[in-house]
Amino acid sequence: MRIPRSVAAALIVLCLAGCTPGTPAAPPTDDSVTPVESVTPEPEETTAAPAEPTGLTGDDYDNIEAAISSGNTAALEGYLANPNTFIIAASECCGPQTPIETIAGLDYLLSATGPWARATDSLIADYRTGFYADYFPDGAFVLLSSDTDPFVVSVQTTDDKITGIFISSGETLLYP
Predict the structure, then answer these.
(1) What domains can be seen in the chain, in order of their start residue?
(2) What DSSP string describes 59-97?
(3) pTM of the full predicted structure?
């Protein structure tokens, strides 16, 4: 038996109509929703190490002193900020520099006589009364050569980097 074309077309339309999306189902009403207790997990205990303190350590300052004392100033590269400020008293040198430029400038210290020593707090306070007081801020690490008129090196730091180095070829340059 053969189905007439009009009946076949009507069947196809009915089948396709059943495949089209209708209106979505209505959301459930409050009566049909069962409340669920929310559970917030307890934070897990961590065994991570506490954060390391920022800033240079006593060992770092010993390394800086050793680098200047030995003339192996290349060892300072990892400590130097980029840029850092490098100044030589009574000169037009230098200002902001890269670590490599500062290391090259530290060759100026090769004519100083060792051993080197750390300046006392009272001596640093005296330097703060002179022409170059700005280069001896609180926390500056200051070294002196053994020359009769000693070379003075003031190292300024921020966090764990050397941000400035000031050099005077004689302590007498620091006073008015």
Answers:
(1) 58-174 (3.10.450.50)
(2) HHHHHHHHHHHHT-GGGGGGGEEEEEEEEETTS--EEEE
(3) 0.69
